[in-house]
Design brief:
The chain is an alpha/beta fold. The protein folds into 2 domains: 9-202, 2-enoyl-CoA Hydratase, Chain A, domain 1; 205-252, Lyase 2-enoyl-coa Hydratase, Chain  A, domain 2. 44% of the residues lie in helices and 16% in strands. The chain is built from 11 helices and 10 strands. The protein has helices at 34-48, 79-85, 87-95, 112-117, 148-154, 156-165, 171-177, 189-201, 205-218, 223-237, 241-251, and strands spanning 9-15, 18-23, 55-59, 66-67, 101-105, 108-110, 122-126, 130-132, 169-170, 182-184. The longest helix has 15 residues, at 34-48. The chain is globular, with a radius of gyration of 19 Å.
Length: 261
């Protein structure tokens, strides 16, 4: 179910330095078909290499983020077919994107939709949003991060409850649990997410990429190793023109103009 002649993902550039990827299967509540996943993967690959892009906004629209996988395309699949789809390869460009990613979540973020949102670095959610890993209710389990990323985000107790019961949690509970970065009114989700992207896009992109890389790499490393990564990344930034520009602008009491060099 896809709108006739409409791509399943729409790419736009709402502001300087910001790319927007909008899931566009409204008649199927943005179910993550292979076509949609493939197009999303393609765009993330391209945007990662686009020096004009400093931040990526990922959204599903005002009513729904993404309500899971495309069940009709899975019901008759056998294990070898599922394995050979190599969904992890499609999701790799999203997971490995060096640019900061902000997800604007309104409505349902269920199953694959929740797993997709968890790949973002910042999640802005409306008060009416909800998050769920319901795969157990159809005889399977989360397969693209819904156990491993979820437990890292909300801890064992909440992850177990979500994955074993398939019960949704509210945006408020997701915020309290650490899954959501910021909670706002439903009508303000997009503009709040865009404001975050705008602010990030004005920051030095080399520093933003290093911060993202070190936080992600250090999460599962021993503290001493993670601190070593942080020290070396910080030292590397002192070789950039942006470091000189940022500090000079601070001393001169003016806005810095970062070039990503």
């Amino acid at each position: 179910m896809t709108d006739v002649n409409e791509p399943s993902v729409i790419l736009s550039f709402p502001e300087n330095g910001v790319a927007e990827l909008r899931l566009n299967r409204p008649l199927a509540t943005n179910a993550l078909s292979l076509e949609l996943q493939t197009l999303l993967s393609k765009y993330f690959t391209e945007l990662a290499d686009n020096n004009e892009v400093r931040c990526i906004l990922l959204t599903g629209g005002d009513k729904v983020f993404a309500a899971g996988g495309d069940i009709k395309g899975l019901i008759d699949a056998d294990p070898i077919e599922i394995y050979q789809r190599h969904t992890e390869r499609l999701w790799a460009p999203i997971e490995q994107c060096p640019k900061p990613v902000v997800a604007a979540v309104s409505g349902y973020a269920y199953g694959g939709g929740c797993e997709l949102a968890m790949l973002a670095d910042i999640i802005i959610a409306g008060t009416g949003a909800s998050f769920c890993q319901p795969e157990i209710s159809i005889g399977i389990m989360p397969g693209i991060g819904g156990t491993q990323r979820l437990v890292r985000a909300v801890g064992k107790a909440k992850a177990m409850q979500m994955a074993l019961t398939g019960k949704p949690i509210t945006a408020y509970d997701a915020w309290v649990g650490g899954l959501v970065s910021e909670l706002c009114e439903d009508d303000d989700v997009y503009k709040t997410a865009l404001a975050n992207c705008r602010r990030i896009a004005r920051m030095p992109p080399l520093a933003a990429e290093q911060i993202k890389e070190v936080i992600l790499a250090g999460m599962d490393a021993p503290l001493a190793s993670a601190m070593a990564l942080e020290r070396k990344a910080n030292a590397i930034l002192f070789a950039s023109q942006d470091q000189r520009e940022g500090m000079t602008a601070f001393i001169e009491k003016r806005h810095a103009e970062f070039k990503g060099k």
